[in-house]
Amino acid sequence: MASEAQTIAKAPDAYHAEAELLGMGAETWVYISVAIFLVLAVFVGKLPHRIGAGLDAYISGVKRQLTEAAAIRAEAEALLAETQRKAAAAATDAAAILDRARSEAEQLVAQAKVGLVATVERRKALAETRIDVAGRAAEAEIRSHAVTLAVDAARAELARRAPDEAARLTSASISELERRLH
Predict the structure, then answer these.
(1) CA angle, 102 as apex, 115 and 136 as ends, to 5°?
(2) Domain spans of the chain?
């Protein structure tokens, strides 16, 4: 100890005691601080990348769902167009049947004006009724088929996507819609 005191007395500026905290010097604390900074830089640097990757995955899922919904919509529109085409064809057929019935009625009237007027009118009314019934039946069948397909597609899509409670409420609404449309 005496030699240390002598050294301090000889050169007071040459020796100084290093400050310590928790038994470690300032240089050790600098190294620890740099290490902590580097560790934080690595984790903080990767965190935004992880968040971005998660958001990208979510966005791609949403895009996939939108693509599926667009495909289902296109399929429903195709079914609607086909149903409308069938309805137009049924209307054309009904018009052709009506034209044939009228032509037949006119021929019968021309052949037997006397005594057959009542028969011709009866056949004409019967033909128009049959045509009307056939047209209504075809239209009802086409509507029923289109509604059933649309309801089934909507149920399947909503059952796949919606939570249980929302699915139950939606299913009830669709059933009510189906009942009203039939």
Answers:
(1) 120
(2) 24-181
